[in-house]
Amino acid sequence: MNLPDPRLYPRVNPQNPIIRQLMSLLTERDAAQVAQKRLGLQQLMAELLMAKDHYALNGALTQAPSQDAWMTLWHALRQEVESPSQHAQQSATLFAIPVVLVAGCKGEATLPSEIDGDAALAILREHGVIAADADAWLSGALLGPDILAAISPAQLAEWRATLSSASDFPIDSAGSAIKFKDEAVALRYLIGVAIERTGKPAAITLGGQVGSWGMPLANLIGETLKTDGVTLFPIPRTPLPWLSAQDVGRVTQLETRLQVMTSNALRSIRSKGRTPVVTVAAHENNEIRITFASKEDVERWEGYVWPLLPSDHVELIAQYIQELMLECRMTDLVFVDGVQAVLDTDGLPLFITPHTKAPALQ
Predict the structure, then answer these.
(1) pLDDT > 90: what percent of the chain?
(2) φ, ψ dihedrals at 325, nearest 5°
(3) Cα–Cα distance measured from residue 192 to residue 94, given in angstroms and rounded to the nearest whole number
(4) What is the mean pLDDT of residues 133-144?
(5) Which residues contact 104 (CB under 8 A, 6 or more apart)?
(6) What's the CA angle centered on 252, arms 148 and 302, to 5 degrees?
(7) pTM
(8) Is residue 247 classed as helix, strand or coil in its secondary structure?
(9) CATH fold for the domain made of 272-361
(10) What domain of life (predicted)?
(11) How large is the C-alpha radius of gyration of the chain?
């Protein structure tokens, strides 16, 4: 299994102070100096957040010269956004629960976009995810990824430091509409806040595995969103800090979409008595493309696209694909060597199949 990473990164820009500090950190070998330079990077991040300099922050992230460099910057940013000051007597933990909704129907459908936030919060308290006596609030609105992405890291850091009561959380957005035709794998978020106080037990447990609370919350979502003619499977993930939740939600949605497509495509091919072949290739526009075809049919195939972001690890995606195909009893799985073109010779998106001619692979 060998899947190349198609992403290209810019050259080191020594004129950017963040990049300059970053590269000084990454090339340092002395442990004491590493700690000192990491602290210096954190201080630069804190200054950008305090100044709400979104342009400089985005510029540093887009100028990261490697994935390791980007991950180091991202970790530093998360540290500043999510970690309270050592001297603070209290701080607000802003969190989000990714919820993937797998839905199917015949024709078009629209699902409700809100649940009972108080009921969901009660489930989390009952199962110890949120402390029984914690000052906490959970919205019932199922928000789209765009709403979370629109809140800047600087704003998150400010709310963390200044919110004194969970009821003061300023976001009161309506849920994002869930409209689809035939089937959908939609991503929504439940957002909330818990107030942490120095010397008190933790108000909320973030991360880890979905525990005993997962099924009751999934049932609450399923019952609330129940719609005639629609089959619905809600998949809630664990509460996470705001920035981390966006990464986890996106990956969970992509994995679930791939699961659904794999099941449908393989069932269709096998029902015709044909032999399925799955081909995986990396393409120049930062995409992993997966093709479902059969050995016997030259013309028909289905394609799936996994767009790569800086946080994605290609080797983990390849491993996930391999494990998924093994679960589906797929023995003919091909990983294509080399980075492939975006378009074929006819100017159409290139998807590699077992019948693709050699010149298209150059």
Answers:
(1) 89
(2) -70, -35
(3) 6
(4) 96
(5) 182, 183, 184, 230, 231
(6) 115
(7) 0.93
(8) helix
(9) Ubiquitin-like (UB roll) (3.10.20)
(10) Bacteria
(11) 23
